[in-house]
Amino acid sequence: MFSVSGLYSGLDVNSMVNALVNAERAPIESRLNRNEQSYTLELTAVGQLKSSLSSFQSSLQRLNSIDNFSQRAASISDESVITASVNNNAVAGSYTFTVDQLASRHQLASEGVAESETIGTGTASFTVNGETFSVALASGDDTLTGLRDAINNAENNATIKAAIINDNGQQRLMLNSLESGTDNAVSMDLSGLTGGTVSLGTFTELQPAQNASIRFGSGASAITISSSDNTLEEVIDGVTLNLKAVSALPITLDISQDKGSVSSAIQSFADTWNSLKSTFSDLTGYNGVSAGTLNGDAQTRLLESQLRRELSNLFGESGDPFRSLGDLGLETTQTGDLTVNSSKLDAALSENFDALADIFAGEDGLMTRLEERLTPYLENGGSIAQREDRLTESLSDIGDDRLDLEARLVRTQSFYQQQFLAMENLLASLSGTSQWLTNNLASLNSSNNQ
């Protein structure tokens, strides 16, 4: 490191240079630090506001579609017998029926044969629901295992799977239909297999190929519905039934409007608004000692005012069942929070469900209006994104300013060092001249005294 000695001046030159450089650094660095802290705090605050606004926006989306108010809920008297799923097309009502029979896949097993026995070479064919495929067994593959593999590996087989059952030293070939229902019964022709040591004989039916059967009503007027599998779609509009067991007693399926999901969405809306209101208060408020980071920020104040105004606006016309959020059970406390009055909300859901849906999700419903207020702030390239970009750029500029400051201070330090060096050189020269004069004057005095 370059340094200047104060040999001739007697000064602590390096300390003086550092002090001069630091004197130039301090005000600029202090300003950069203040700006950096201010930008960082503001960027953090904007991020908090954006997060809270996004959560609020998500709660709006759960209530911003009439379809969400059209959801249906299913209640079943015995879910060990049947389960059901419903869509918005399901008609509310009560349905009673009996499950008389479950659909099953056809399952057959051959007579038992020893593993070493052959069953013949040639061709065997299998038919399911009008589709036939054939397999060929050659010498060396004419065993029960060979037939199993030939069936499972047949390219045109999409209907049967074969397996080997080991039964007390003997093997049985088991055939399983891949689809349930009477149309998917398995038939076979093994007459093309000849020359084996044993015949597979007659196959035993382990499980019949049968359709599911449910019965609406009883007696001569009962309506019987048959299905090839245990999932029955659209037997009732908008309802899918999944049969699990035969019922000894009639099963009741109740379909109703899914008020629980709507009530949950409204509670979520209230909760996220309260959280957003708290964020507004923290960021823009003043508690008598300190102010929030966005205190006095016009953009944030404007958005809060717009949202509050939408929540307090009246709906519809005089005489309508609901004129305000409070009428449908979404009440405002003295602090501005939203609280759900469960009894009012339940009554609104039960008595005026369509009117409530229109208030929230109608063409000019509350959720649409709130969404319109939020979109300019939260959309890509919106005001919040622009503000974040601007603050990020300002922080980047401060980083550049710090680099510029350091480069300038290096030049400043070099300048002061050169100035002090010149001073020291001058003092060294003057010291030499002084010493010469002193020596010469001393010599002259000595000569005069002789």
In short:
This protein has three domains: 1-71 and 259-425; 72-102 and 212-257, no CATH class; 105-207, Immunoglobulin-like (Sandwich), CATH 2.60.40. 44% of the residues lie in helices and 23% in strands. It has helices at residues 13-61, 144-153, 259-284, 298-312, 342-351, 353-361, 366-378, 383-448, and strands at 72-76, 82-86, 93-101, 105-109, 113-114, 121-128, 131-137, 160-167, 170-180, 186-189, 193-194, 204-207, 212-216, 223-227, 231-236, 239-243, 251-257, 330-332, 338-340.
Strand and helix layout:
Layout: H1 13-61, E1 72-76, E2 82-86, E3 93-101, E4 105-109, E5 113-114, E6 121-128, E7 131-137, H2 144-153, E8 160-167, E9 170-180, E10 186-189, E11 193-194, E12 204-207, E13 212-216, E14 223-227, E15 231-236, E16 239-243, E17 251-257, H3 259-284, H4 298-312, E18 330-332, E19 338-340, H5 342-351, H6 353-361, H7 366-378, H8 383-448
- N/C terminus separation: 55 Å
**Average pLDDT across residues?**
87
Total helix count? 8
Assign an overall shape: elongated
Count of individual beta strands:
19
Instruction: Give the low-pLDDT segments.
Output: none
Total domain units: 3
How would you characterize the largest beta sheet?
A: 5 strands, antiparallel
Q: What percent strand?
A: 15-25%
